[in-house]
Amino acid sequence: MKKYGTVAIMGRPNTGKSTLLNTLMNQKVAITSPLPQTTRKNVSVRYEDEKGIIDFVDTPGIINKVEDLIGRRVNLEAPKALGSVDVIICLVDISREKTDEENKVIGIIRKSDAKKILVYNKIDKAIGSKDHLAEYNYLEDEFDKVISISAIKNKNVKSLINLIMDFLKEGKPKYGKGEMKIPMTSKEFIAEIIREKAYLFLRKEIPYSVATRVNDVEDKEDVIVIKAEILTNNERYKKMIIGKQGKKIKEIGYNARKELELMSGRKIYLELVVRVDKHWMESFS
Ligand code: GDP
Ligand code: MG
């Protein structure tokens, strides 16, 4: 009998979680659809080799989910997300300085009983004086294993798989292929993808004032139409989010749409608007 286990990949946006999944699977992974009108709501990817089967769940910002909005809620969300997995990969980007985002991710992981692997990513780009490894050294004791990889160059990824397999026991898969659940509703999930992109394109300008909300998801057979908004509490931020001639909002929308299309295997039409709402915080609590 083969081994079986579930693994969550955690980390701040842009650390390489999706890249790692694509490398693991040796392809751009068409993750099963997170959209409500299609048959499944779950996002997981099954890896299989001669030793065993691993269901990976990418966690697009489960961690950062509400925390940029309302710090107190995140602690309720994350342990639920992690409750069911055997192993947690904490992916960090060693080419970038460690920030409060990493600290929060680590704080959440700390609460889980799963086996924990600290994975330093992007070693191809940051080596020697350019890396930020020293900032993580003190944490290594808290993790069961530590490994350095390059997700994009497929360096040490197989070794990471072997580390995971060492933690797993023989057994049958607990989920159907692609059916492992993540604890988010579809609208929340889509909103999170958009928020993740907004964060990537805006983080220098407006770190704490953006929320996203999906108001409608409609499956029109040839296309899924999503109506969403980015909320901010201030006119000045609204201008920045839109950007010159709408450049920023287009960039955010384009990237969110591409990711949703990849995940769902469907064509997506994303209608994204920016709205000033002085009370948006209340609507999220
Ligand atoms: P996610 O937000 O954590 O899912 O991150 P992505 O997988 O989308 O990766 C974010 C960016 O980092 C992309 O531009 C990737 O090409 C890049 N990236 C991911 N892994 C590596 C790596 O091992 N080395 C380098 N140099 N870049 C990487
Ligand atoms: Mg991703």
The hetero molecules present are: guanosine-5'-diphosphate, magnesium ion
Describe the main β-sheet briefly: 7 strands, mixed
CATH homologous superfamily caption of the largest domain: P-loop containing nucleotide triphosphate hydrolases
| Cα separation of the termini | 47 Å
Q: How many discrete structural domains?
A: 2
Query: What general outline do the C-alpha atoms trace?
Result: globular
Structural class: alpha/beta
Strand content: 15-25%
Overview features:
10 strands, single chain, three-stranded mixed beta sheet, binds guanosine-5'-diphosphate, binds magnesium ion, Rossmann fold, globular, 2 domains, 285 residues, alpha/beta, seven-stranded mixed beta sheet, 32% helix, GMP Synthetase, Chain A, domain 3
Descriptive report:
The chain has 285 residues and is α/β, with parallel strands linked by helices. It folds into 2 domains: 3-170, 3-Layer(aba) Sandwich (Rossmann fold); 186-283, GMP Synthetase, Chain A, domain 3, CATH 3.30.300.20. It is 32% helix and 23% strand. It contains 8 helices and 10 strands. The protein has helices spanning 17-25, 71-82, 100-110, 157-167, 186-202, 235-242, 247-264, 280-283; strands at 3-10, 45-48, 52-58, 87-93, 115-121, 145-148, 169-170, 211-219, 224-232, 268-276. The strands form 2 sheets. Strands 1, 2, 3, 4, 5, 6 and 7 form a 7-stranded mixed β-sheet that branches. Helix 5 (186-202) crosses helix 7. Mean pLDDT is 78; it is low at 30-42 and 60-79.
